[in-house]
Amino acid sequence: MAEGANNGTRRPRPNLLITGTPGTGKSTTASALAEATNFRYICVGDLVKEKNLHDGWDDQFECHVINEDLVCDELEDVMEGGGVIVDYHGCDFFPERWFDRVVVLQTENSVLYDRLTKRGYSGTKLTNNIECEIFQVLLEEARDSYQEEIVIALQSDTIGDISDNVASLTEWITTWHGTGSPEKC
């Protein structure tokens, strides 16, 4: 492919989306990658709370109902410059042109269950997130929302996996040229 995933827009540095089911290590991976690359790290969940980019609280899932339009409006200018790592458990509402790499973190179900119960997840919220991981909902969402060649799935069961993922993504960033990207991370 001659042009990058951002439809030919020339940014000096790529943008990455780190997505996956809650508990897969998105924030840990994204913040470590930002530190390793000196990229800007944006956790959408924190941004939603800080800037009130939501339409209220969902009692069943114990979280804010984000206003996707407000989030996109808030991020538009930041994304144009490149060098941004976005962390969020969904991906289908972000403009495709924003990202040069979409990383879907995946975690083995028993590991994920333990992580989520330690966070206090229970009932519907716990069940829903485990089922999302079992059925690879976020991987399918990413594949449906972005060009196939920019979407990669990475295993994130251990601290070693996270370190390996950060190292391979850092390597990908250093070889990115703005007109396309290497085939594999």
Automatic annotation (TrEMBL):
Q: Which reactions does this protein catalyse?
A: ATP + H2O = ADP + phosphate + H(+); AMP + ATP = 2 ADP
* InterPro entries reported in the protein's UniProt record: Adenyl_kinase_AK6, P-loop_NTPase
Matching entries from Pfam families are given as:
AAA_18 (PF13238)
Q: Where is this region: NMPbind?
A: 43-66
Identify one Gene Ontology CC term for this UniProt entry.
nucleus
Q: What is its EC number?
A: 2.7.4.3
Compartments, as annotated in UniProt:
Cytoplasm; Nucleus
Annotated residues for binding of ATP: 23, 25-28, 119
The molecular function GO annotations come to: AMP kinase activity; ATP binding; ATP hydrolysis activity
According to its UniProt entry, the protein's GO biological process terms are:
ribosomal small subunit biogenesis; rRNA processing
Q: Enumerate the UniProt keywords alphabetically.
A: ATP-binding, Cytoplasm, Kinase, Nucleotide-binding, Nucleus, Ribosome biogenesis, rRNA processing, Transferase
Where is the region LID?
118-128
Q: Which stretches does the entry tag as region Disordered? A: 1-27
Mostly located where? Answer: cytoplasm
Alphabetical list of PANTHER family matching this protein: ADENYLATE KINASE ISOENZYME 6, POS9-ACTIVATING FACTOR FAP7-RELATED
Task: Describe the subunit structure.
Answer: Interacts with small ribosomal subunit protein uS11. Not a structural component of 43S pre-ribosomes, but transiently interacts with them by binding to uS11.
Its function, per the record, reads: Broad-specificity nucleoside monophosphate (NMP) kinase that catalyzes the reversible transfer of the terminal phosphate group between nucleoside triphosphates and monophosphates. Has also ATPase activity. Involved in the late cytoplasmic maturation steps of the 40S ribosomal particles, specifically 18S rRNA maturation. While NMP activity is not required for ribosome maturation, ATPase activity is. Associates transiently with small ribosomal subunit protein uS11. ATP hydrolysis breaks the interaction with uS11.
What family is it from? Belongs to the adenylate kinase family. AK6 subfamily.
What name goes with this protein? Adenylate kinase isoenzyme 6 homolog
Tell me what organism the protein belongs to.
Brassica carinata (Ethiopian mustard)
